[in-house]
Design a protein that fits this description.
- The chain has 271 residues and is α+β, with helices and mostly antiparallel strands.
- It has one domain.
- The protein has 4 helices and 10 strands; from the N terminus they run E-H-E-E-E-E-H-E-E-H-E-E-E-H.
- The protein has an 8-stranded mixed sheet. Strands 3-4 form a two-stranded antiparallel ribbon.
Length: 271
């Protein structure tokens, strides 16, 4: 639901859901431990310029008992590692592009942890960030193509079945994600009624949205290797000067053995 629309009550469709059956770490809104923000980065999406959102917040009712709740944040497509820190965020914020708003289903009636997302493709700020033709499902299909590592945008208009699935892997910060997507019907109507910018988004007589929602199941299948010391020294209250000294002597003894072994061929080689 978007405030102050004309006519009132228009909104953008929630067209992608990260299932609550995904790995628990993925559903945590964090850059750490393979969390949601790191997953977005693996798809070339990231937070807005300097973390600031200029537009109005949109609200959604996820049926979890909390009623309409404002979006958690807006995530925008970026243009690669070189510009990821600031430049691409400024570019997309000003010039438009694919973006998403998201909410977490965590109320008392349905505490699933699922991430509900409304994806669309914006026009530049000079055009008041309107939505391009086909902008709702084009942005959704682009996002799914990134998530499942496709070589082109998902051609949903040509799918033999609306439930066709795609699976692929993405990686960021040494976390590898496997995403399985399934397009489902019945959650959205195939309509232009109630959709924001419904005068410009429809193309060739088709409605503004196609009624498909992509359900994602995301698993972490690879994690950074953790350093494990060859010898574990327990640091307890009983750890005193004697044990510290013994440890230092042990290290010196080890170094001495290595030096002797390295010199041994020279000592034994005949002059």
């Amino acid at each position: 639901i978007i405030p102050n629309t004309d006519p009132p009550g228009l909104g953008e469709p929630i067209n992608v859901i990260i299932s609550g059956d995904s790995d628990a770490d993925v559903l945590v809104d964090s850059f750490n431990n393979g969390g949601l923000q790191n997953y977005f980065l693996s798809l070339n999406y990231t937070t807005e310029c300097l973390g600031q959102h200029i537009g109005v917040a949109q609200a959604a009712n996820l049926g979890d008992g909390l009623g309409p709740q404002n979006q958690t944040a807006v995530i925008r497509y970026d243009y690669g590692e070189l510009y990821r820190l600031v430049l691409s965020r400024i570019y997309v914020t000003v010039d438009g592009g694919s973006h998403l708003r998201y909410w977490t289903q965590n109320g008392p009636s349905a505490n699933t942890g699922a991430i509900f997302m409304a994806l669309s493709y914006e026009e530049p700020a000079a055009q008041a960030h309107g939505i391009i033709p086909n902008g709702s499902y084009r942005s959704r299909d682009w996002f799914i193509a990134n998530a499942t590592n496709q070589t082109s945008i998902i051609p949903t208009l040509d799918l033999a079945s609306p439930t066709s699935g795609f699976t692929g892997r993405t990686t960021y910060s040494n976390y590898t994600y496997e995403t399985k997507s399934t397009y489902v019907t019945g959650l959205l109507q195939n309509t232009s009624i109630g959709i924001n910018h419904n005068d410009t988004v429809p193309v060739d007589g088709r409605p503004a949205i196609d009624g498909l929602v992509a359900i994602l199941d995301v698993k972490i299948v690879g994690k950074p290797q953790r350093f494990v010391p060859l010898v574990s020294i327990e640091n307890t209250k009983s750890h005193n000067w004697v044990s510290s000294t013994a440890h230092r002597l042990s290290r010196r003894s080890c170094v001495s053995r290595i030096l002797v072994l390295s010199l041994l061929p020279w000592l034994l080689w005949p002059a």
